[in-house]
Amino acid sequence: MSSPKPSPFSFTLRTPTAQDIPALAQTAADSFATDANSQLKNLRAHPNHIVDMMRDVLNDWVFADPKKCVVLKAVDDSTGTSVGWVCWGFKGFDIPSATCDATTPRPAEDTQKQEVEEAEKSKTEASVSKEGSGDAASVTTGEADRENDDKYDDNIKRLDELTNDHMSEWMAHIMPEGTKCMFLYSIAINPAYQKRGIGSVLIRWGTEKADEAGVFCWVHSSDGGYGAFEANGYVERQRLVVNLDEYAGGVKRPGVEGDGKWGEYVFRYMVREPRR
Predict the structure, then answer these.
(1) What is the DSSP string of 165-181?
(2) Nearest-angstrom CA–CA distance, 29 and 38
(3) Which of 40, 117, 188, 250: CA 20 to 30 A from 22?
């Protein structure tokens, strides 16, 4: 007897509001939870560091001029849950239509800002409550580990400088003055919903706009994400290979059995030419 087929999955692209930002930030953190580069850079950060950072970034993107960038969320039609999102940026031209869902208008900007401020206040109160539950033993441990923390911080600073400088060189090369193009700032899919076509739809929203405008698209892909871009017409133009163990300072990678090595991580710079 054959096993039953999974229920059909459908989703809709919509424009997010301020109320969506915490959930989208959590999706970003969850989608990069097993990414080696992200793990290493945030190994000793506060557990909510990535969520907090992405909340701030998404706040800027969601409120940005839609002629500069657009954030889209994918919503599960059966549950109303946001299961992924993307942020597309534009350079040198205006796209014909920056919204994907005219039936979901954004609230007034001052209302959105008030919602964000209220969310930030709740987050701060929760953080203070957690910090107040510490004890003297944790402080003592922190003092003892300060030297190792400083070494770790120096290594991560060097890694950030390497990747940031390489990105700056790439951007100067691919987007000189007068360039017209689109670029993918970030994309994140809830791990429970991955490999169900959501990422491709979010990518194609942008590539279709680029085709209409006759401009190329580019993306700075993570080590694990490049396959989705290849499947949607992107070609690798340049790469940066980093031996993460050179920056780990002997710290083993969590969840990796054996020698706990971090291994090589490949950042890929990929381009998709317009299809007319």
Answers:
(1) HHHHHHHHHHS-TT--E
(2) 9
(3) 40
What is the β-pairing status of strands 181-189 and 216-221? parallel
Best CA proximity match to 234, nearest among 172, 183, 185? 183
Lookup: tokens for 67: 């002629």
Q: What is the DSSP letter of 137?
A: H
Residue 116, token pair as written in the block = 């964000």
Torsion-angle region of 26 (φ positive above 0: left; ψ -120 to 50: alpha; else: beta)? alpha
Average pLDDT, the chain: 84
H/E segment holding residue 117: helix 109-131
3-state DSSP helix/strand/coil % of the chain, to nearest 5: 45, 20, 35
| Pairwise CA distance, residues 241 & 251, whole Å | 20
Tell how strand 82-91 and strand 216-221 pair up: unpaired
Q: Nearest 5°: CA angle at 201, between 195 and 205? A: 155
Per-residue pLDDT tens digits for 201-257: 999 999 999 999 999 999 999 999 999 999 999 999 999 999 999 999 888 998 888
207, 216 contact by CB (below 8 A): no
